[in-house]
Design brief:
The chain is α+β, with helices and mostly antiparallel strands and 369 residues long. The chain is built from 14 helices and 12 strands.
């Protein structure tokens, strides 16, 4: 059996890159990626949060998730571009369609990232790095934006590799490279180690991923329960999860997103919900399915999980409808605590939209019109 070969593809500053690529296509002379710029809020109200930032904006200390007003204080000449979620959904779809030409064994995990099981396709190329370079360059030359690609033998290490130096880079992180490339990193940079977990680990004098890898997992479990064991495994590069290319028997279509930073405002959380609903809708449409039920899931920074679901008035595959329902569920669920993970899932699938039964008031209104 061939050794697994997994690629993780991540768009560099997706929202800003996609807005910049579209503006250049429409004749805009300046590239948002090369000047201090952000996606989020608007100049008139100075409200909202930073959803994405350019590298020049990052040089001013501007961070994703911070209030736009704070970002403008750091850089008064900052260019603000409002988000365009319909555009982002289109660019995401184009990306996934292009990537499927290289490898159909693809699992999209958010609007701007996916995994590919390249095990059986790697033999067509001189090396895994050569395959990744061709993919990366094709995305840039065809679609006008850049991606990072991480290469490894499992999903965890591939994702960690893609987060190394950016943008437009390829990195490997095979098990034999863990000690040299990963263990010296701060523990907070390990996937699934959020702010709360990092604080707990630092109290235990666990400061690097290497420190975590060499800690007795029983000690971690005594302080962090099952999560302690999970992050110990991740620090040692252990992950056997498969690349999931289809939902089992299409009983439901959904996705979950572990946030790069805990969401602490409703606006931040609903931005993530929008991305999730866009992806879920795209997959429903791909499968020719309509959802009659939607559920929203929240995992807090404390790793407590809550979820709620509701039946839809009519089955749908429309992102806007799913998003409105997911937000209503979110408002019912959220207790104001920092959020680590969000999920949206649809169920009660059918291959034809169910007819909507009009009530007397609808009928009268339409008759009067």
């Amino acid at each position: 059996m061939s050794k697994r070969l997994i690629f993780h593809i991540d768009v560099n500053s997706a929202y800003l890159s996609w807005s910049a690529a579209e503006k250049l296509k429409q004749g805009e002379k300046r590239d948002l990626r090369t000047i201090p710029s952000i996606i989020g809020g608007d100049m008139a109200s100075r409200h909202g949060v930073v959803l994405a930032k350019s590298i020049p904006a990052k040089a001013y200390g501007i961070a994703t998730g911070e209030p736009v007003a704070h970002a403008l204080q750091k850089c008064p000449q900052l260019i603000l571009e409002p988000p365009n979620h319909q555009l982002y959904r289109q660019y995401s779809q184009r990306l996934m369609e292009l990537l499927m030409n290289f490898c159909p064994l693809l699992e999209q995990v958010s609007i701007d990232e996916c995994y590919m099981d390249f095990t059986e396709y790697g033999r067509r190329y001189q090396s895994p790095a050569a395959a990744a370079a061709q993919i990366k360059d094709t995305v840039r030359n065809t679609l006008g934006f850049t991606v990072n690609i991480g290469i490894s033998s499992n999903k965890l290490l591939a994702k960690m590799a893609s987060d190394f130096q950016k943008p437009d880079k390829i990195h490997t992180l095979f098990p034999e490279e863990i000690s040299a490339k990963m263990w010296q990193l701060p523990v907070r940079e390990l996937f699934m180690v959020g702010r709360s977990s990092a604080a707990t680990l630092e109290k235990l004098e666990i400061l690097t991923i290497g420190d975590l890898a060499h800690t007795n997992p029983q000690i971690l479990e005594s302080h962090m329960k099952k999560h302690g064991r999970l992050i110990w495994e991740f620090a040692n590069g252990i992950d056997n999860s498969p690349v999931q290319t289809e939902d089992s028997e299409l009983k439901g279509v959904g996705n979950r997103m572990t946030l790069k930073q805990n969401a602490e405002t409703s606006e931040e959380a609903k931005c993530a919900l929008r991305a999730l609903c866009n992806q879920v809708a795209a997959r429903l449409q791909k499968y020719g399915q309509y959802a009659g039920m939607v559920s929203t899931e929240i995992r807090y920074a404390s790793f407590t999980e809550v979820s709620h679901q509701r039946k839809l008035a009519a089955s749908t595959a429309e992102a806007d409808i799913l998003y409105r329902q997911a937000c209503l569920l979110f408002d019912e669920l959220w207790n104001g605590a920092p959020i680590r993970l969000l999920g949206v899932r649809t169920s009660k699938l059918t291959d034809t939209p169910e007819p909507v039964q009009m009530n007397l008031f609808d009928y009268t209104a339409n008759w009067l019109l």
